[in-house]
Amino acid sequence: MAVFTTVTETELTAWLGDYSLGQLLELQGIASGIENTNYFVTTSNGRFVLTLFEKLSADELPFYLNLMAHLARHGIPCPNPVANRSNQFLSTLKGKPACIVSRLSGKSITKPNNTQCAVIGAMLGQMHIAGQSFSQVMPNPRGYAWRAATAPQVRPFLDAQQAAMLDSEVALHAKQIWTHVPQGVIHADLFRDNVLLEENRVGGLIDFYFACSDALLYDVAITVNDWCMDAGGTLDATLTQAFLRAYNAARPLLDSEREAWPLMLRVAALRFWLSRLFDMYLPRDGELIHAHDPRHFERILKNHIASAQAVWL
């Protein structure tokens, strides 16, 4: 989340005239993140989050909004899009596609414990099950084609050793076809800052705008790579096993997924190393922006490559 497009209270009040959300009481920009413009909005009817989409087009957005509405109907605590008076989730504000969704309770944490990792593992499994009945499909926009196109753009900013690792990993994962493991809708960005917790209860899963259709295990690897990592970029075995056991109880994992796990951890780390390199060295102009340090996922990827045995159940 970030603020690239300024919205004034006057502009928002006019826009809210097409919704049944009451009177605007407060508007506050959200500075964290790098993809969209986001504001906390408080009205006389409740608390909401306004998003203006800086990259995604109006044609691309129904998948994400319909997915959130679907998951919310199936008991997953995620932002529920609000329809306007024309019964549409999507509108236009400041010339950008925009929507407003329910604001969820809780706060993100930085150092999860075993119980919290287990709770997130269970919730991710439940989300994957709920997503099986969602009929729309979105090919992963950050899959092989994106990796192949992005790597040459960031390569000039790397030293020889980093460039060699990047080239090797991009080539390795270009050969992997994961159609033999279970597929479905994935969040694809379920980091700690995209989960709201109330102690050991999940208050909300947020920021679904990287969601897509891909291997469910890829989503597990992305999430584990953030939730279960120690400060040095190595998987904490206790946290990882707590997460995987809880996930497995919600959606039993297959032998094919066990076999794919070490490489899935690597491609998940590669995806975020690449995107963070791009955001660091080739950023978009914005009023408020927070780019993450790519060296974190470089270390994680190195450790996964060096590890003889990935942590499993």
What does this structure look like?
The chain has 313 residues and is of the alpha+beta class. It folds into 2 domains: 9-102, Phosphorylase Kinase, domain 1, CATH 3.30.200.20; 114-306, Aminoglycoside phosphotransferase (APH), C-terminal lobe (Aminoglycoside 3'-phosphotransferase, Chain: A, domain 2, Alpha-Beta Complex). 42% of the residues lie in helices and 15% in strands. It has helices at residues 9-16, 61-73, 114-131, 144-154, 160-174, 216-227, 237-250, 255-281, 295-306, and strands at 24-29, 37-43, 46-52, 91-93, 96-102, 183-186, 195-198, 201-205, 212-215. The strands form 3 sheets. It has a 5-stranded antiparallel β-sheet with strand order 1-2-3-5-4, covered by helices on one side. Strands 6-9 form a two-stranded antiparallel sheet. Strand 2 and strand 3 (46-52) form a beta hairpin. The model has no long low-confidence stretch (mean pLDDT 95).
SSE layout and pairing:
Layout: H1 9-16, E1 24-29, E2 37-43, E3 46-52, H2 61-73, E4 91-93, E5 96-102, H3 114-131, H4 144-154, H5 160-174, E6 183-186, E7 195-198, E8 201-205, E9 212-215, H6 216-227, H7 237-250, H8 255-281, H9 295-306
Antiparallel strand pairs: 1-2, 2-3, 3-5, 4-5, 6-9, 7-8
Helix pairs in contact: 3-6, 3-7, 4-5, 4-8, 5-8, 6-8, 8-9
Q: Look at the helices and sheets and give the structural class.
A: alpha+beta
Radius of gyration: 20 Å
Strand order of the largest sheet: 1-2-3-5-4
Task: Calculate the terminal CA-CA distance, rounded to whole Å.
Answer: 34 Å
Per CATH, the superfamily of the largest domain is: Aminoglycoside phosphotransferase (APH), C-terminal lobe
- Average of pLDDT: 95
Choose one word for the global shape: globular
